[in-house]
Amino acid sequence: MERHRELKEEKIGYGKYKKIDVKTKTCFTMDADKFHANCYSYSGAVCAMHYLLRQKPYRVMWGGGHVVLDDNLQYFSREEDLMGLSTYTDLKDFELNNEDLNEKPYVEKVKQIDAYSKEWADLTIYRKALKYFDYERTKSVRYSGYLVNHTKKIAVNLFSYWKKSIFYHGDDELACVDPVPMLTETGGGSQTLLFVGINMETAGSLSGTWCGDLLQIVDDLPPGYIQLIFSCGALLKRIESNHLLRTSVVGDF
């Protein structure tokens, strides 16, 4: 969903993926399968997300349905986070999963989320995203420039990340687990860590730490921003691809 104030991007583990801009109260919503089906460089949800982040800064959340369970809402305190959650969940979801909702210490947060959920209007940008990345030919977003976190003043060199994380998808297509879903998932790392071997090179400890932060993809590293160097990928896929990648020419595309 794309909402024009500070935008949040959300993807639900088995539900929806959204970006929001609070000022104009518009959003982009995309139905999606579970986290592990849509967190890759070739995923349509990732394509739409990268397109929006290359246009301007957005608050990003890769949203999951687990937010309504096991008192997980207690970990979300910023108003903008509640706005982001409201793009795909509301009072009804919490009532269905919490019989004692009125006794929860965060019941007022739920009411606020429900109020926000009625304010959004949807935008359609998916076809624009596919055209922007020439998806029919590339089957991937473009890993160039920097993914920057304006909230934490941190940046990731996307090409460097891609080189460290790629594996073969099918017979001859290179792919990777995209860093944005992993860094911004609402489960605090619970979804990312279901990957075998995901803890390699600090990826596990980073999962969910950018959830709800203001992100953007830019060409150049902003002055004063610290570069974060890491990789992320299912261990089995990387092992299977390793002997082929040693003889492959890896280039930007």
**Order of H and E elements:** EEEHHEHHHEHHEEHEEHHEEH
| Quaternary structure of the protein | single chain
**Average pLDDT value?**
77
* Structural domains: how many: 1
Beta-strand content bin: 15-25%
Intertermini distance: 26 Å
Rg, nearest Å: 18 Å
Tally of separate helices:
11
Derived structural class: alpha+beta
Strand order of the largest sheet: 4-10-6-7-11
Largest sheet: 5 strands, mixed
Summarize the amount of helix as a percent range. 25-40%
Low-confidence stretches: 1-18, 196-200, 239-253
Overall form: globular
| Strand runs, count | 11
Please outline what is shown here:
By secondary structure, the protein is α+β, with helices and mostly antiparallel strands. It has helices at residues 35-38, 44-53, 79-85, 91-97, 107-117, 126-132, 135-138, 158-165, 179-184, 203-206, 235-245; strands at residues 9-11, 16-21, 26-31, 58-59, 121-123, 146-149, 154-157, 167-169, 173-175, 214-218, 226-227.
Q: Can you offer a commentary on this structure?
A:
The chain has helices at 35-38, 44-53, 79-85, 91-97, 107-117, 126-132, 135-138, 158-165, 179-184, 203-206, 235-245; strands spanning 9-11, 16-21, 26-31, 58-59, 121-123, 146-149, 154-157, 167-169, 173-175, 214-218, 226-227. Helix 2 (44-53) crosses helix 6 (126-132). The radius of gyration is 18 Å and the shape is globular. It has a 5-stranded mixed beta sheet with strand order 4-10-6-7-11. A 4-stranded mixed beta sheet has the order 1-2-3-5, sandwiched between helices. Strands 8-9 form a two-stranded antiparallel ribbon. Strand 1 (9-11) and strand 2 (16-21) form a beta hairpin. It has 11 helices and 11 strands. By secondary structure, the protein is α+β, with helices and mostly antiparallel strands. The longest helix is centred in the middle third of the chain and has 11 residues, at 107-117. The protein has one domain (9-65, 123-245).
